[in-house]
Amino acid sequence: MPLVTSKELLIKAQKEGYAVGAFNANNLEYVQAIVQAAEEEKAPVILQASQGAIKYAGLEQVVSMVKAAAEAVSVPVVLHLDHGTDFLQNVRCLRAGFTSLMFDGSALPFEENVAITRKIVEIAHAVNIPVEAELGKVPQAGEISFEELKALMTHPDEALRFVEATGVDSLAVSVGSIHRMQVQEAKLDIERIQKIRELVGIPLVLHGASGVTDDGYREGIKAGICKINVATELNKAFTRGLKEAMAEFPDEVDPRKFLTRAREEMKKVIRAKMRLFGCSGKAKSFSPGVPGSRGEEGATLKDFEKE
Ligand SMILES: [Zn+2]
After folding, report:
1. Which residues are catalytic?
2. Ligand 1: distance of its center to the CA of 296 in Å?
3. pLDDT at 293
4. Distance of CA 219 to the CA centre of its chain
5. N or C: which end of the chain has fewer CB within 10 A?
6. Rounded to the nearest whole angstrom, what is the distance from the C-alpha of residue 67 to the centroid of ligand 1?
7. Contacts of 125 by beta carbon, 8 Å cutoff, 6+ apart
8. Ligand 1 ion: Cβ-proximal residues, 5 Å cutoff
9. Is the pLDDT confidence value at 156 over 80?
10. How far is the CA of 24 from the centre of ligand 1 (A)?
11. HSE-up of 219 (CA within 13 Å, CB side)?
12. Quick check: 127 pLDDT over 60?
C-alpha cells in the first residue's frame, strides 16, 4: 500500500500495549530487509532515515526507493525522518514525501526547542504529517557516568509543558538508554516512563535501544513506550553478513552474493525485534493515516458560490 503516516500506527500500539519497530535504513538492501521482514511478520513498520543516511543515499532516492518498496507489500509502511536537527531538514523531507518527521532540539535550551518544534508541527499538521520531538538527551556511547546520564533524563513535568506548548504527536524520551551501545547494559528508568506517560498522554519513543535487554524492552513497552528505534543492531547484522560471506567465498567477485547474506542477516534481526516488541501480526485490520488528507473532505455546491 502507499506510504502511511505514523500517527494512527502509534496510537493503535499505545492502545493495544505493544511498540512499533522503527528501523534505520542506509541503502537498498536495508529498505528491502525492513519491508520484506514486515510483510513476513504481518507487522506495521516505520522505516527511518537519519540525516547521515539522506546525505549518503540522496533525499529523492530515499523517498523513491521506500515508496516503491511500500507499494509492493500489504502492510503499512511509514517513512520517518530520524533526528532532523533543524527546521530546513524537516521542511525538505516533508516536501520530498516523508510521512513522519522528527525534530531533535534536545541540544537547545527548552524555549528554543519549543519554538522550532512548534513551527514544524504547524507546517506538518497542515498536510496531516505527524511530528516526533525529543526532550532530555539520549547520549552517545562513550564515557558517561550514571550521574551524568541521570542529569540528561527527561523530566516529567517539563515533558508535559513541552507537549502542551508544541502539539507534537510523539515524544522521544531520555530514560536510561544510550545511542550506539554495543552491549546490553542499559537500565531503563521504568517509573520515569510511567510518570511521563501518565502526564503527557501521547506515544513515547525509545532511542538508543541497542543497549537495552529483552526484559527491559518488555517493561518499557508496558510502561508506555510505543516506538522503538533500531539502528546499531541492523548495522552490526549487515556487516556481520558481509564479512562472513566474503570470508566464505574469497574469490567471488559478484557483490550481490555478499549483499544477499547481509540482507538476510538484517531480516533475522528485524523479525526477532518485531516479535519482541509485540507488533508481529498487528498489521491486520488496520486503517492507516494518509498524508495530505486534512481538510480535503470533498467539495460541495456551497464551495463555488463565491467564485
Ligand atoms: Zn536516536
Report:
1. 82
2. 34
3. 62
4. 19
5. C
6. 23
7. 131, 167, 294
8. 207
9. yes
10. 10
11. 15
12. yes
Cell of 125: 499538521
Tally the residues of the chain: 307
> Is CATH 3.40.50.410 what the domain over 6-288 is classified as, yes or no?
no
The Å distance, Cα 194 to ligand 1 centre, comes to 20
The residues, any chain, with a CB within 8 Å of residue 132's CB and separated by 6 or more, are 6, 80, 100, 101, 102, 103, 168, 169, 170, 171, 172, 205, 227
Partner residues linked to 191 by β-bridges: none
pLDDT given at position 282: 96
